[in-house]
Amino acid sequence: VTIETNAGHNQPSGAAQDRRMWVEAFAFDAAGNEVERIGVIPDGQVEEAAEQPHPFMLRDRLKDAAGIETHMFWRAATYESFLLPPATPATAAAGTHGRSGMFRLRTSVQPAKISVRVRMRPMGLDVLQDLVSSGHLAPEFLQLMPPFTVLSKEATWIPEKANYSVRDVTDADC
């Protein structure tokens, strides 16, 4: 999966160490039954854990002097970045301002349809939970940071072309 942006800035932007943007994939058989899902984060769950990284998460990661991820920027010694790069006049050509990720299906069934969606949360639940734990944020604010769907695409298998036909089915809520 490759996603690109037309924004003149990185995405997610702003405090990218706090923001979470990710790609989810669903595979369906010819009868419309879901046969696999990859990278799906249920609403209300933390987007990613250190012991189980998400397969396609767009964000910055801050690390302290010991190399342990921190959500408090004043403790950061280094950072790792995986963002969508900006689209500029010099990089306006397709393929020059995006990121790619690989989703490997474990099913042996040829998916008749694949749905992919890009979701984001302005601030990760892990960051908010740290703020609640430290006493800097009231717990009721956790439920006020829902994920939003930014983009949705569907790819339908066309047997006679031995290829997928892709269409935008975005019903964006942000």
Write up this protein.
The protein is mainly β and 174 residues long. The chain has one helix at residues 125-133; strands at 2-4, 20-28, 34-38, 57-63, 78-82, 98-100, 113-121, 148-158, 163-168. A hairpin with a 5-residue loop joins strand 2 and strand 3 (34-38). It starts with a strand and ends in a 6-residue tail after the last strand. The mean pLDDT is 87.
Please count the beta strands (DSSP E, at least 2 residues each).
9
Helix content: under 10%
Q: What is the CA-atom radius of gyration, in angstroms?
A: 18 Å
Low-confidence blocks of residues: none
Offer a concise description of the structure.
The protein has 174 residues and is mainly β.
List keywords for this structure.
globular, 1 helix, mainly beta, seven-stranded antiparallel β-sheet, 174 residues, single chain
